[in-house]
Amino acid sequence: MNIFEEVKSCVTAKDVAVHYGLNVKRNNMACCPFHNDHNPSMSIKEYYHCFACGAHGDAINYVSEMFGLRPYDAACKIIEDFSLPIAVKVLSPEELKIAKIQYEKALREKKRQAEQRERFRKWCNEKIESLKDAEDVIEAVENSIVAQCGVNAMNSNDFATVICMKSTIEYWLDILCFGTMEDKLEFFVHGRKEVENRVRELFEIGARYMAGGSADTGRGICQCG
After folding, report:
1. Measured between alpha carbons, how far is 157 from 222 in angstroms, rounded to an integer?
2. What is the pTM of this model?
């Protein structure tokens, strides 16, 4: 086994996290130390995984991330701090060069993933605001059509459209506000285009009524007087 395998055979991510001060609950959940976490969102046993920011790894990854160390240096720190019976090899200049390249590559990948998580977080927040605005538009269109048509409101194509959209938008908001990270990612991958198209359609309907338009029944303008 190499030094990384030896270290991981002796300690888990939970072992090192607790050792370095993380408060892990009895259900193996903890507040993630890698983002501003107020409710426990990290599961930590042999490996750790944060369901909020996506941080994931083993004992060495945890120490590397926590202290800003190269993986090799993180492994050496664990060996020293846990007094593990593992011989630490002095790296040659060539091995140090390779280790530096690997570390810098890992840092670039970490930065890329962090930027992706930030873009995804911003997208979720923007869509939540957009969908809340859409709910306001739905209410305004409903009220406008009911005011024009009274009991004949159901004959309006626009009224039927916004009523149908209402439950869909409530469902999307539930995913973005209360869904798991997996739910949100699935929604982002497969649903974001539909969200943009449906919200744009809804805002176009709303704009007509804000401009003083009349309800379309499919057979002409709704005559409510």
Report:
1. 10
2. 0.55
